[in-house]
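Prompt: I keep going back and forth on a fold encoding question. Comparing notes only helps if you start from a blank page. Show me how you would write down a chain together with its backbone fold. Please set it down just below, with no commentary around it:
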Amino acid sequence: TSNLLGGIAISQPTKEIRFNQCIVTYFDSQNSYKPAEAIWPNPNDSGENTILNGYLTIDGNESLVKRVSVSGCTDFNVARHIAQVLVKKSRNQTTVSINTTAESANCIPGDIVTLTWDSLSWSSKQFRVREISLGQYGSMKLMLQEHLNSFYDRDIQSAPSTVSNVTVGFPTIGQVSSLTATES
């Protein structure tokens, strides 16, 4: 609070940016790089179905599904982890806008900062700096987004089994010969 000028503006995620399930399309290296999907929370997993049902209850039983395609991802667990992080972050993102003293000029977007605000019972609550700009009379305007390390906790599960009885042919290409080149 010693670095804050004025008040604090707080907003919670709305339904438009919050979702209760994420489906990530990736290119499965275990199945000839064909498109596959990883879902979190997966309704077919009893533990994750409990999480999904809790989210649905909070969201008035409205299915809020986010679909993402990650072209560079080739592993089920990585795709599933991306889906998990996206869901957790969408649901727990308190956004704070504050004006601060010039000492905040040391911050850059991406930094993790702490905010203590007694009336909200926040003691060194972590936020990620999203935006920073110059305010009036040398003050700094910061837009912060809640950060919890637990967003990034990872658990590994077995990838769903690939479709059986599929034969993929790999044509044999013979050695190239009799090549010539003419300089022009």
About this structure: Residues 132 and 148 are 20 Å apart (CA to CA). Helices lie at 46-58, 76-91. The longest helix spans residues 76-91. The mean pLDDT is 83.
